[in-house]
């Protein structure tokens, strides 16, 4: 078996508060293989976002290690972490965070160009993704002219633009109504499975979680089967 796309080894994370240190993760372990989609379902305040931030190299662990494609990455320098995030990790959040002054197409082109892709190739990739999400006719529209579901589909396309091996999503449909959420999530799963991406998706929705390959939760700072 090949190296997991993501592996957390005995990861610890603590925050300092006025009352002292607050342990959030205590020896958390998790492994995601290419093509595997895992739901992270846990109550608020148990460390879901912290786990995603560590997996996405947005925070450093206080103990243990974060490995991306088998390579230790948790304690890399800022520049190396930034480069690795751009090339290997895609992010989707509850709110789309699209750049309002740019079109749907441009929002998908820009992160590719930041990663060194030529503009023409980036635009071709963006059009391909928009077509796949049923948004080809909306390519020239700015976010303000898109519905909530359309904005989130553009955000998902943007996350996949650089062909990451790992996708991290924090309540990606939590800001949508039920019917729109179901459609957007179905397209997210289809796109991720089609690309063979490993995905860790935090959600409060048990119906969405049940559509993934397995479900995990956080208990006393550790990752356990839900």
Characterization of this structure:
- GO terms for molecular function: ATP binding.
- The protein is of the alpha/beta class and 226 residues long.
- It has one domain (6-98, 151-225): 3-Layer(aba) Sandwich (Rossmann fold).
- It has helices at residues 48-55, 78-88, 104-114, 119-132, 148-160, 178-195, 206-209, and strands spanning 6-17, 20-32, 37-40, 63-68, 71-72, 89-92, 166-170, 198-202, 214-219, 222-225.
- α3 (104-114) runs parallel beside α5 and α5 (148-160) packs parallel to α6 (178-195).
Helix content: 25-40%
The sequence of SSEs as H and E is: EEEHEEHEHHHEHEHEE
Strand content of the residues, in percent?
Answer: 25-35%
Mean pLDDT over the residues:
92
SSE class: alpha/beta
According to CATH, the fold-level topology is Rossmann fold
Question: What does the oligomeric state look like here?
Answer: single chain
């Amino acid at each position: 078996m090949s190296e997991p796309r993501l592996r957390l080894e005995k990861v610890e994370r603590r925050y300092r508060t006025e009352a002292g240190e607050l342990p959030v993760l205590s020896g958390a372990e998790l492994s995601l293989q290419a093509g595997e989609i895992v739901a992270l379902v846990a109550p608020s305040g148990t460390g879901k976002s912290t786990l995603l931030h560590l997996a996405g190299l947005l925070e450093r662990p206080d103990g243990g290690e974060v490995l991306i494609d088998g390579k230790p990455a948790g304690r890399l320098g800022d520049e190396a972490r930034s480069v690795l995030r751009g090339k290997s990790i895609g992010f989707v959040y509850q709110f789309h965070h699209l750049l309002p002054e740019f079109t749907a197409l441009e929002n998908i082109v820009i992160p590719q160009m930041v990663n060194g892709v030529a503009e023409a190739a980036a635009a071709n990739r963006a059009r391909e993704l928009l077509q796949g999400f049923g948004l080809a006719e909306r390519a020239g529209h700015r976010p303000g002219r898109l519905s909530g579901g359309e904005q989130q589909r553009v955000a998902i396309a943007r996350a996949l633009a650089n062909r990451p091996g790992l996708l991290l999503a924090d309540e990606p449909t939590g800001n949508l109504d039920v019917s729109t959420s179901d459609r957007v999530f179905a397209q997210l799963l289809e796109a991720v499975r089609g690309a063979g991406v490993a995905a860790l998706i935090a959600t409060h929705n048990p119906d969405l979680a049940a559509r993934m390959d397995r479900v995990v939760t956080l208990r006393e700072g550790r990752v356990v089967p839900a």
